[in-house]
Design a protein that fits this description.
The structure is a homodimer. The first copy, chain A, is about 45% helix and about 20% strand. Chain A has twelve helices and ten strands. Chain A has helices at about 15-25, 35-45, 85-90, 110-115, 165-175, 185-205, 210-215, 215-240, 255-265, 270-275, 285-295, 300-320; strands spanning about 5-10, 30, 45-50, 55, 60, 70-75, 95-100, 120-135, 140-150, 180. In chain A, strands 1, 2, 3, 4, 5, 6, 7, 8, 9 and 10 form a ten-stranded mixed sheet that branches. The radius of gyration of chain A is 19 Å and the shape is globular. At the A-B interface, helix 8 and helix 12 of A face helix 8 and helix 12 of B.
Chain lengths: ~325, ~325
Amino acid sequence: MAGRRYAVLGTGAIGGYYGACLQRGGAEVHFLLHSDYDHVARHGLVVESIAGDFALPQVQAHRTVATMPAVDVVIVGLKTTQNALLPDLVRPILGPETAILTLQNGFAIEHELAQWVGSRPILGGLCFICSNKIGPGTIRHLDYGSVLLGQHSLDHQPAGLSPLLKALVQDFQAAQVEVELTDDLRLARWRKLVWNIPFNGLSVVMNATTAEMMADPNICQLAEQLMGEVVAAAQADGEALSPGQGRQLSAELIGQMLTHTEQMAPYRTSMKLDFDAGRPLEVEAIFGNPLRAAQAAGMAAPRIEMLYHQLKAIDRRLSAGA
Amino acid sequence: MAGRRYAVLGTGAIGGYYGACLQRGGAEVHFLLHSDYDHVARHGLVVESIAGDFALPQVQAHRTVATMPAVDVVIVGLKTTQNALLPDLVRPILGPETAILTLQNGFAIEHELAQWVGSRPILGGLCFICSNKIGPGTIRHLDYGSVLLGQHSLDHQPAGLSPLLKALVQDFQAAQVEVELTDDLRLARWRKLVWNIPFNGLSVVMNATTAEMMADPNICQLAEQLMGEVVAAAQADGEALSPGQGRQLSAELIGQMLTHTEQMAPYRTSMKLDFDAGRPLEVEAIFGNPLRAAQAAGMAAPRIEMLYHQLKAIDRRLSAGA
């Protein structure tokens, strides 16, 4: 079987890193670039990684999807704030069996894709990685790096492990990326939100690093209460979608995550990086979508909602350039 | 009957204004001053008021309560963040029937005083006023100015209108201060919190004036939800303390206050003024005390609690000089 052909939409900290790894592992990868196009077309990509630096002097760089071939897998690495662009970016490179793999943060991202990609498989990859784009075509990989892959199911039932998923695992392993599989992508997204909702949200509202938040007893207590609301929302959502099947997160998760966060090096969350750079915040993907899912399942989630309102106001102020 | 003798502890925007009015109305007033003592001892007080400017070239200024006589009424005009000083400031000027009138913001202020003033009457005055101290001995009175007076009752029952209250009303009227009476001080404090909790709190967390908050649809919605929690907390508190007596706020209050806030000139709340000046925030009086009262009455009040945690963290950062 020939190597799979990938398109990477959004060649930044996430898409750029995993795309470069896949090419290094032997896959054919087409990169969509915007401001970095000239540099990357000429010089390729550089990855400065804790796992070992590497360079790809030649990559298939594109300024537009019009020059790309149809691909086997579209990797979505854009921020969710740009998702309105996705139909126009994805449709031209779809073959009849093309899979879409979104590496984006948040909740119900796959559900939005499913509105318009037809019967093609939709996959989600949860990236546990600290990486930044530090210059044109240059990605710095600071810590972690694994990906948790799962397949979206239309009926919200655990999707099982398809041949496609297993093939992707092979490609990621050839790319030297640690990869795990989940048969319940929705629950895996809730699990990641247990950390992302309190720490991404409060890092912006309180203008603080993880270490500054963990050093304040009131922020610690608030983070724990927010985590409790996310765990309860996940349970309400699971119960609403598949009654009696007991899809829920473990009660120990909150304590484990707090301990882990306390031990981490001081860290600016992805939303704090966006805030500091004046970029749009991923409020709808990380807060709005799970809030609406909780409310649809009959749970009020007042703290998540309050954080959502505060972040929407901050995001509005950012986009007004204040 | 001779004019009553007053002591004003804290000659700032509130104590300075009402103390000056009382002296103008004929009362004997002793003012406690700190950094402004030299200036005020020499030049007296100046009030620049929308109701007409006036000056008091001579006032009884004191650097310490040790030089004050026992008084009929102690007016507490300090910020609640200084309340740990109160026993040492008040005890030396207490006669056997001295009344204590606190003009401070927040909740359960009278309850704290009752811990140590014995059987003396404790009164609360809710000040509806925009005023600032703009220089040594100089108060600017910008808008409003009325006081709602009520008497604290140990058993949390509506206290009725005592002869003392009626006498105070005469003094305030002679001082040309609009004054109203309430027989349920606790409910009146809840009523004021319906505005103060959302707008004081969010003005600091969101770093915004009232006009900026009202212009943002998410902050408006959050303010309305916080107001709803305060109204529910007031009801739970009333029901816990006097079951079946129906002490509660009207359902129309929230809409009225929002409309009024929308029509006000852009306004920095008292907590925002403290925040901008780097002064300690009155978090415990305005947020901690009502939160604990709500929780004692069996209500979770998650949004008020979240605001409390956020403000405690901001106050901690302020006091660390960050």
